[in-house]
## 1
Amino acid sequence: MVMSEYEKQEIVRYASFLEDKGYTKNIMDNHLIVYSSQEIDISVGFEPYDDACDVCIRFKKENEAYYVGWIACVKGNLNVNPHQGLETIRMLLSFVKEKYSEITDINYCRESDKLIAEFMENAKKKKNT
């Protein structure tokens, strides 16, 4: 899905807190906006061949990346629909802003990954019963 000019402007507006924190904005193309610091990249993206979107946080030194949509689900009890484009991105950026100190801690993200694995396992069990 391609970001419209309006969607780009809205994402930049919602993510302005990242620039206030020293991140550099880079609009890569019609699918991806990346906010970079020395240690972290926060990517806001729309899948090019799908209608899904998400926010991803990547820890450069460790070369580890985590999807904020999943973290928001297991840690923030947010039910986001990755197919709702701009509405989803707004929710996820609000989550990042609210939980900034936690979400930029790699241990928080690693713990979240364990909860995501448990969530998926439980969902699989429910589906099979």
## 2
Amino acid sequence: MDERTDGISRRQLSILLFVSALSPLIRQTPGMAVQSAGSAIWLSALLALVPLPLAGLLLGRLLRKRVPGEGLGGVLLRVFGRAGGTAAVLLFTAWTVFYAGFVLRAGADRFVTAVYPGSRPWLFMAVMAALCVPACLGRLKTLGRCAEIALPLLTLVFLFVFLFSLPGLDAANLAPVSRVSAADAARGALWLLSTMSVLLLLAFLSDRTEPGPLAAPFNRAFLPLGALTALLCVTVVATFGAKLAAEMHYPFFVMIRCIRIFRLLERVEALIVAQWVTTDFLLLGALLQSAAGNLTLCFPKLGARRGAVALSSLALALVSGALCAPTAFSLRELSRTLIPIASASAAGVLVLALFVGLVRKKI
């Protein structure tokens, strides 16, 4: 890959996907899944591991015949034709911008709930949007390198949290699985898969990824995320029990608040929550870069003004974030309804694209 181009390696793509997906993972896990699965949430996490390699293979198959500079958007244009493909790409773009607004709103709510109770979320949204301006105007390669730097730090954070949470775990909270709870666990697995479906939106960054097969790079992000999801579910539910965890908005951060380190540092949640500014930043930057790339693909005349297109996408995301959920309650309802439905629909479109592409011999 030419270092002078705005592109990333397949390794950087995997790391960017993984680090970016940590933002919704921490916010929504175990979330709705534990309300469905109860103490069998650990089984939900194991069941969610099964489809993840299939998702990687699906994306890899769609992109198998891509030419340099062509990504998932270009494949959709090839499979569905110019008119149908443009419509599909624009729908994905609209959802990407809206989801970026949801990330802004959810990130602000997380700070208000976990660190600064009683504060207004709009200030946090504005600050995060301002931080994302360089990501909009900069190169995708820069985001890839930032993800490489952030990965070891975030790994240490997880190791720290899980290590110091061990004394508070109670295996009795992970009850044996019955036939009824197994069905609940299957429903819980769908919620967990919905949380990780943001990676489908970031797959459009494949147009600026070095040539080569992408099934393995996608799976290098999917599979560790699935394993981390299982570990989070087990740790949170073993700490609080399924009933109490289901009533918490952010059980992971409540668990962090309970951590004590040899009486040297009584509260560590503010320090750790601040680390998630990095994941929010990388996720938002990747989403906005993806949206800008899709728009310039559909409207080539915008190619010379990609930075302005990305800033416009950021402005639209900020507006949608401010309007989509005026209250914390409406934000949680949005997480419960529209977000998983739209995520499932996005996955369905890609499955349809694979079927149509195979029939038309376009992939």
## 3
Amino acid sequence: MGNGNRKAQYKRRKERLKSRPPKQKEKFQLIDGNLTFYPVAECRPHNGYLTEGLIETHRCRQRKCPGLKPLKKDGDHNG
């Protein structure tokens, strides 16, 4: 049982951290129940927020999900 390609995992993580959205003042609840300071979009059908990783995991952009609503770029969102 291996842990996959650790070098590739580290490289992907480093790239993700470069494109991280601005940190919010408060925590947001994600659709999987976790909390984050870095939401990227709102999911209307699941009544929660998504990070970039969750959007990739659920393939929201590829499926052109109508409930996906990107947050403002300035980091201010009243949620």
## 4
Amino acid sequence: MQNNDAKINLTDDQTINLFIIGLMDEKGIQYGDEPYKSDIFQELKTRLLTELDRSLVAALPDDKLDEFSKVVAQDGKIDPDVVAKAVLDAGVDVEKVAGETMAKFKDIYLGEDTAAGAKAENEEA
């Protein structure tokens, strides 16, 4: 079942900002007026948005990915509106992809990457 009525806006600054601030809090970095904390915040936000875009593009079916690649090849850059349209047209489950991406981003940032942990446990056994 496709969810073409999804009203998720991945550029919703308030949602993204709250997520990043939460990550910083969990890491022990309090967001404040200090310039370095603002720099960390901006860097994390940029990385998260990039990972969300990558994950959504990776979730495209092969035929839609080919169409998307052609558009990018013509323009030489990736327009967020083109990504959004391709994802919507393909019926990608945006909530699922975004949730998984954000969870993985959090695990990596906090040093809790379960895949890496499981591999290390298997090597010790």
